[in-house]
Batch of 4 targets.
Target 1
Amino acid sequence: MNDYFTGENNMKLSFTTTIKSIGVAALAIYASVGISSADTLLERAKEGKSIRIGFTNEVPLAYPGTTGEPDGFVNVYVLNVLKKMGYTNIEPVQTDWGGLIPGLEADRFDIITAGMYVLKQRCENVLFAEPVAEVSDVMIVPKGNPKAIQNYTDVAASGAKMATCVGCNTIANAQADGVKEENIVPLSQMEDMLIAVTSGRSDAAAGPYFTMLNFVQNSQGAVELTDPTKMPEVSRNWNGIVFRKGDADFVKAFNEAQASYLGSPEMLEAMAPYGYSKVHIPTRKLDWICQNR
């Protein structure tokens, strides 16, 4: 990842201080650098103005690196596609998961690079580029899986507590399979899901495959991953890059640029350190996903 930001690549990134919550002060900063909401993203990018990418702290999807640079496979993917488009002036903005779409719509950043799932309801409010990865939700449970939890139905039947992230599709999926609202523990930070399980606050936690796998790898054997094939079909999802409705021209250009990059040897090599492989290359197009998810 760090090689991407060397002088050899002529990267001219302007990094902001990590933003845990974005408010009036942040809006004032954006105003001071002359960002006008009246201009489209494509117009501003062509003028050389910074492209602001919004993401959370979710390893390995998207997170701030050791020196504040945007890291994670979705961030790296987007940076590489933008570079192919000729854009290297990037400004990263970190926020909570629940603040991603509101922040995009409020013009606090231009692109959501958090690896957000493409869902029908989201497609009605924002624009997605063609998906970058196909994955399944999965759960982490304490080592040995004492309550024999493999899916939402098991959570409902056992009356277990299940942690997940605020604004995530896992909440609706769990409730659809009978999990009671009072048994769902909503968390604003993804990384808090591992803490919830290891501390006993919840009996399981549900979330994206890459994130949950990372929790297992860093839990020192405290938790294990459930079998993703035991999850309901609705848990199969596609990670997408998100834009405002008014930036359709930029999305079109982005899709054209990523068409030759997605699944290429260059892309797979860059994504490999984050656990991405050929099995994660999307098998569905955006139109189908927006209609069926």
Target 2
Amino acid sequence: MKSVVKDSMRVAFAVCITLASAYLAPARSEMIARSADNNNEVRITMNYKVHLTGRNDYVRLVTLVPKNISNKQKVLNVRYSPEPVRLFEENGNRYAEFLFNDPRGDIDILINADVALQRSDLSSLASAPAPKDTDCALFLKDEPYLEKNCPEVMSVARRINGKDEMDTVRKLYDYVTHALKYKGYVAEDVGAARVLCSVKAGDCSDFSDCLVALARAKNIPARTVDGFLAEYSDNNPRHTWVEIYTGGYGWVPFDPLLGSLGQVSFDRLSPEYVYLSGVRNDDVLDNYHFFACRYAGSPVKVSDSYQIVSSAIMLTKN
């Protein structure tokens, strides 16, 4: 996940977003061992502090919130303070919108969500019927940061071939996890083309962008996923991973960064992934991650923080 500051003034209108906290940094060699359990419950705290520098006609903040996803997660409870003016779904995501007219003083938005997670990985999906997705074409396109048509990306993709579709996915995953190095949090969005061709290193967003771009270059639908990781280091649960669609399994999640660090495997992930978004360039959020803030008037700054305040492994075992 990237930290971005953007001011675009048009008369008295501006768009500003600041992702103040660093994202997941799973650099510890002693990272907590991944649970083999099938289910998990987590409580997430999302906090946005809007700092005003003067008078504003309005401040509008839109943020992603968890939604129910079959065989992946069920939202048990969500509490908002203050209440949003609306909840809506678009692009397959769920959003909460907060609107403050003529605000006087700084704004504090707090969201607490309880989410039940179900293990969803290649090994758990192998015995289940593959769900059909009619929108897979959306996840084959060339787009910013997922430059599947870049000649260099295509050149790498042509060299990677498996005996069938899933074997090709495995080889793509192996290539990314071995060719790239983890370098900690990277503030700038770099994109798959630059990472694969020159940088050869990055954070979870970069690893995921590369795997998705290569899969799409092989005509295999793929998407990045933004969300939270329940087991994390440095108190920063934000994370990006990948889902790839195959005819035999449907949408299957993979984590190339943690795979490169030896903390997960190709076919097995524990139930620690809280899904927020499967859209890489989200126009609802002005193409940023997690949230967007718009206002009319004096500049504002948004500080965001996220925390898993409790995590309890449930009793269901393999």
Target 3
Amino acid sequence: MSIFDKYPRSSFLSELTASPHVIDIAHRIAELFSALDGLEDPNFGAELDADPQSRIWEMMVSKILKDSGFPVLGSNGDGPDFTVFHRGKKIVVEAICPTHGEDGLPDSVPPLFPGPDYQEVPIDQMLLRIRGAIRDKKLVFDRYRAKGIISSDDLCVIAISSSKIDRARGYSPCLGVTATIGHGGPYAVFDSRTKECIKEGFLLKENVRKANGSLVDTLPFLDDGNASIAGILYSEASVYSLNYDLTEETYFIHNPKAPHCIPAQTFKVGHELWTVLSTGGDAWATYSTKMAFSVDRSIKALVAATS
């Protein structure tokens, strides 16, 4: 059934069909809903108007799971958003679409203002939003286990969309990788005498400092306390974007500390990333089908020695 037929009283859907758009957002949403129809939780209709982007993300997650070849079970309102079975293992998925934060607060992501003035890229604020989503859903899975809704052997996946954080797209590596394994932006070290590049890689981003001075770590996948999370399904895709490709704009980030791993290519996404830890824990590398990058805690000493 079409989403427009199933929820005819939705003001959000009515506005979509009544207002012209450069891109056919209504058609995109109708296509996505075909993967969710029948899997919605009991509150989906009411929440569609209150928080449409979160509901759209649920549709996207359902499409990713179904396109990956899984029969998908939805939520009854008292358990994970989605459940699939793969090679005898249950995979439970919780979807979340973090916002940019409350307007005006120092740790929120500020809007991008048009004009020629320099504006700092709010990387730390964006990472705080993503990191907070990981923390919140980890607690949800902990509650499910405490209630016996899921078992210790079930594979837990947090599905995060950055679509509400308007400025969180187009970074390399994506902010989902930085928020989980600490891979920051690229760097190059040059010899001051020969001008030759002697090392290049990705900076280590161990934490984010909040406005009140407290630190929030961006290395949850190096913490045994988060080993119960098998991985993060992270997406920059937005139906409101001119360039929209759900598969290509979605990543699956494996947790190297997870005792039960999700097999490679379980999810049909554009980017899949694995992290390998060194024995001493001072360096680690992440590999994907598209690229490889590594971080090293000794980079500060290296820069000082060659400057």
Target 4
Amino acid sequence: MKRPGSLIGSAVDTAAGIPRLQRCYGTYGGDMPDPAFPFNIVVVEHEDDFPMHAHQYAELVIVLNGSAVHRTDLENYPIEAGDVFVITGCRRHGFSGATELRLCNIQFDPGQLLGDQSELEHMMGYHALFDLEARTPSDRGFSQRLRLDAAQMSAARSLIETMIAEFHGDAQGRRTIIRSTFLLLVASLCRLYTTQKRREPTAVVRMARSVAYMRAHFAEPLRVSDLARIAHLSPSQFQRTFRKAYGTTPLRFINQLRIERARELLADRTRSISAVAAETGFRSPAFFSTQFKRVTGTTPSAYRTKAQRDRVATWRIGPAATSLVT
């Protein structure tokens, strides 16, 4: 059995209707009840300060009641009922000055719960709320982040209640219902963020708008000047702000998106290398091969051969493993 890690703190969890002490370790092993399903949902009440800490997973936080000061290494800001924010793994945060604070904390593995959701990645609100806002300070403070009104909070509570009921139940299909309800909540919050913030000239909104466009149009010819215009910045300002947010240049970011898509397309052996290059926005197969090797360390043809070999090996192991069980 894996050790849960060092205890960070505890709070009263009322999600299942019966108050119980919820201990926080900040690790998958300590805070996720099911090792095969990296998800946890708790509704906790805070009356005291909660120490600064970090955790391996990401956390979607919805403030249900009360108020407090949310503390991070980047900034401190007041929160109250209706506020929604995301904390990415390894970012330190805590609370102070809590008054009747009640939070819904949804702890999850982004790779497994939000991976392969291409439609989300085309939403400005997704990049802002679940990426940029989660790891960078807002240039105008917390007031620029997502806040739900009474009707929106009611809708969010309904989805939360569904996830809680399924999470603490044992009916067949519970994971599917939890995952689909979680995605519905995420998509709804991203849509609300886009609606609320699309006209606000914050750095987060500017970058999120441009990244959403890049992900939707990465196979097309994209110039920094065009992306800067989408972000309502000069090319030099855009490149400087983008590098600060993502740690790379816009063109390298686009190139990475193209390579990621190329990896997926190479699994289809009916597509030629030239076709994959064209579909992912590279101007020639030779240039595609050069860029692919620079990023992955191997050529497209060698990558395809290895991927096929790995699939065959997995297929061969599968029947044998099954026969041992039966």
